[in-house]
Amino acid sequence: MELPWVALVLSLVSAVAYAAAAVVQERVAGRPISVLVWMPTWWAAIGLNGAGALLHVLALRYGPLSLVQPLGVLTLVLAVPLGAVVARRAVGRVEWHGMALTVFGLGGILALVSAAGDIGALGAGPLIGLLLVAGALLTALGGWSAVPGASGLWAAAAGGVAFGVSSALTQTVAVHVGEGGVAALLRPTVALAGVAIVALTSAGLVFAQRSYRDGLAAPLAVSTLANPVAAATIGLVLLGEQIAGGTVGAAVALVSAVGAGLGVGLLARSRSVETVAVPVDKAYAA
Predict the structure, then answer these.
(1) Quick count: other Cβ atoms within 10 Å of Cβ 181?
(2) Do 102 and 76 meet the contact criterion of CB atoms below 8 Å apart?
(3) Cα separation of 131 and 161, whole Å?
(4) How far apart, in whole angstroms, are the C-alpha atoms of residue 101 and residue 104?
């Protein structure tokens, strides 16, 4: 049963949880994972991410994907001002412009793709192929992000792709469980998808954490863009979905993608996002 207002509220709270998690992760980004796992603050961020994911899934029970998915861009809109408040600074004009371009561009892409239909279930062959391609892509992006002096945007892209593929696999598991009940989890294909979801989500969290060493806005924009684009690509390539509107829709999607890319570029060039994080010594002195 669709209750759009419930879906709207759940989506907004989900975006708040994701935004707060991003701000917390960015504040402790100067520490390696081996140190972060012992910090309650970092686990609080993980909990916020989990709460955001749960609320997102619940929102889909009360409203259509075309309503819920585009609201995910609010994470960027909320996180950047929240991060500025925590860092006791003002959000720069370039950041506002970058956020606007990113949000409108991503919103245009999501509106067209979501109108084309929900993501269905992957079969065994496509699932294995997807995991091989995703593994190779994440290895490449992760390798580039680990090069000394490399931009954190490589890690942000890897995190977004990991979360996007995980979302598609979650949809696959949900479809199988919906058709066959909990017993469907014992099927090899569904079990493989479940294991992959855990692995990809964990990898996404690690990549996102690494990306925030360069600030908050630009990495979050890249991750927010890569996530639904990865999920939509899976639908278009593996599930036979089409962009709504045919040739015109494809052109609008292309323009939207360019706009989102320009927005990310503005955020990446903004001097104010290069030093959003509280200095490591101060962040851990509290």
Answers:
(1) 9
(2) yes
(3) 12
(4) 5
User: Can you spell out the DSSP letters for 191-236?
Assistant: HHHHHHHHHHHHHHHHHHHHHGGG-SHHHHHHHHHHHHHHHHHHHH
> Residue 128 in contact with residue 194, Cβ under 8 Å?
no
Number of residues that make up the chain: 286
Is 207 within 8 Å of 144 (Cβ atoms)?
no
Q: In this structure, are residues 219 and 156 in contact, taking their beta carbons and an 8 Å threshold?
A: yes
- Whether the per-residue pLDDT at 129 is higher than 90: the answer is yes
Helices (H), 63-123: 65-68, 74-86, 93-115
Residue 137 confidence (pLDDT): 95
pLDDT digits (tens, 9 = 90+) for 154-175: 999 999 899 888 877 877 887 7
